Automatic annotation (TrEMBL):
Keywords: Membrane, Transmembrane, Transmembrane helix. This is DMT family transporter. It comes from Pseudonocardia hispaniensis. NCBIfam families: DMT_1. Residues 306-349 are annotated as: Disordered.
Amino acid sequence: MIVIALALASAALAALSAAGEQRAASRLARKVRQSAPPPAPGATADPRRQVMRRRLRHGLGFAFALLTTPLWLASWVVDGGSFVLQAAALHLGSLSVVQPLMVTTLLFSIPLAALGTGRRPSLLDWVGAVAVCGGLVLVLSTRGSSGIEVANHATLIPAVLAVLLLAALLVVLARGRSAPVGAAMLAVSAGVLFSVGAAVTKLTTATAVDGGFVGLLTSWPGYALAAVSLVSFSLQQAAYARGPLAPAMTAIVIADPLTSYLLGVVGFGEPLPAPGAPLALAALGMGVLITGIAVLAHSPLLRPADAGERPASAPPTRASASTGDRGDGVPPGTGAGRRYAATGYPKGH
């Protein structure tokens, strides 16, 4: 029970952090747009080099302004607490339990997205929430008996390498594809890398417990975690910027727990459901869970309330994340600096 409680608390803090960061970024963006001088009459478009320089200047200025925003900084502290709780859950529990539970971030994000907007969750949102909860109950209740789960490097490392190869292949294949297809492929790549990050987090916490700070500095898991987190976070943002939000979010949230489940079984010896009814119920639960995720990812609460403002906890839409410099002092993709805790799992959780 302690593992479940830690994972759910981590998911709740992740959603709260996402809402706070997005709200802080949105407010700052509106202030910048309102204070930006209008373009000079008859001004023509800048050459590409000047546009890139202005983007860099505005982006750095916006990032510095965020670093001095109390709400944004407080949200990062909350997000740090979310990561600590998730790491503790992974250390004490199973990869195949903790990562599926992290999809409940979507459940917490729905009411946070509605907060202060005057909008309420729809009946379909509630149906999706019930499906996610019911699917998780079926999946987790059908696990076989578990002994002491220790990483088997002989099987874990080849499995991780296979996942990394799959992620790289998806990135290569995404080039030249249509926006929705390319975004989905990048999202799946990010999702499977998030599962690798979870597996490496489990190794990192074990290293920290056994060897302390010196052990972390002199072993590879901590460095691997930093590298995987950076790449997965970048791919997630690229997916959000490339195409429609809902399919990308759905792909990430589904790919992460599915791959984590497989890595847990292959690399940590976590049990599969027993053949027969338990296995059938687990498959049914996974199907119900995926359906609930897809329903919640398409919720109107996680889409822009209007053309000028996004809900507080929603990730960037393509229009806001992939357009060019608007000349208003707000860098492209303002407020896009999070994985939907989604989905999200913020910052490579």
